[in-house]
Amino acid sequence: xxxxxxxxxxxxxxxxxxxxxxxxxxxxxxxxxxxxxxxxxxxxxxxxxxxxxxxxxxxxxxxxxxxxxxxxxxxxxxxxxxxxxxxxxxxxxxxxxxxxxxxxxxxxxxxxxxxxxxxxxxxxxxxxxxxxxxxxxxxxxxxxxxxxxxxxxxxxxxxxxxxxxxxxxxxxxxxxxxxxxxxxxxxxxxxxxxxxxxxxxxxxxxxxxxxxxxxxxxxxxxxxxxxxxxxxxxxxxxxxxxxxxxxxxxxxxxxxxxxxxxxxxxxxxxxxxxxxxxxxxxxxxxxxxxxxxxxxxxxxxxxxxxxxxxxxxxxxxxxxxxxxxxxxxxxxxxxxxxxxxxxxxxxxxxxxxxxxxxxxxxxxxxxxxxxxxxxxxxxxxxxxxxxxxxxxxxxxxxxxxxxxxxxxxxxxxxxxxxxxxxxxxx
Length: 426
Fold this sequence. Notes:
- By secondary structure, the chain is of the alpha+beta class.
- Helix content is 63%, strand content 10%.
């Protein structure tokens, strides 16, 4: 499988285009203390994340184990002196000196089995690195969505507070003219204060979201002021069946093929261990008594009678056979996450459709009518505040639906490595 990280970088979320309200920074180099774009955030995260550095080291460790598995046993050198008895026995002259060189010869393909297991371990480490990379990009995208959402919520509350503040002078004039009670001004000022309080809470949430996004980008402090993205844009999802097929190409599942190869190699190593290895030796012997030399040859091997490695073989068999079940558990968990995200995205799209076609237009129309009639004394302050509250609630519901939709999209794309509306099938 070709792992399409480029597609994830550029299409992980549909907010990669510039918002008309914010300047769009170039993908490759964003200006410091300027607007941060999603491609820039993903690029910084992939480049600076210590999580990927750990994964790279794990690959290096696995490569070292692979290299070590292919090595031959070291030869052994030995030195012996026989019939050596210094002292009054005068047997030193009859000493026999032997210099031996021994080599363990592995039989049955043990080295090939070790190499096979190590290759599976190495491939699994590479897939785990790709899975970590995809997970990092998904988390960064979700953090970017949360930051853009918090930023947009602050702007939304600022506009709502400004709209309520415009009512205060109008109501004060009615009070001065004796057409309204002073309590109407107090009620409006209380509504303005409540909106300002929510705005401050939203600013705190924005600061936290910026910090979390900065941490994923591998920085200590943010070097950007705002985030740029078309938060209001949506796309239609592909059928859920296509997502299930795309899940099988997720690195978290692909690595199980490598893990199975590794465990099959471990099983073969366990089965081959009872096959005795041969230790061959050759040596030179010197007889001091008559100053003669001789060649010494030897072969030795263990007798596999007491230990047939049956326990280790059973363990390796069970470990290899549970790969299928482990992959199935992993796959079902991924499908559950994708299903929840797909249902969430579809539900939020339906809510957005209802909000944008019915609720928001009606709420805005109501506010316009009441604003025009309030100055003429046709509506009370409670009616105008209720109209503003209804519009504010509808705008917040739209905002929350958009945030939930984009988070769900980021989750799906993080598990399928493809754009939400262009998931490929097998």
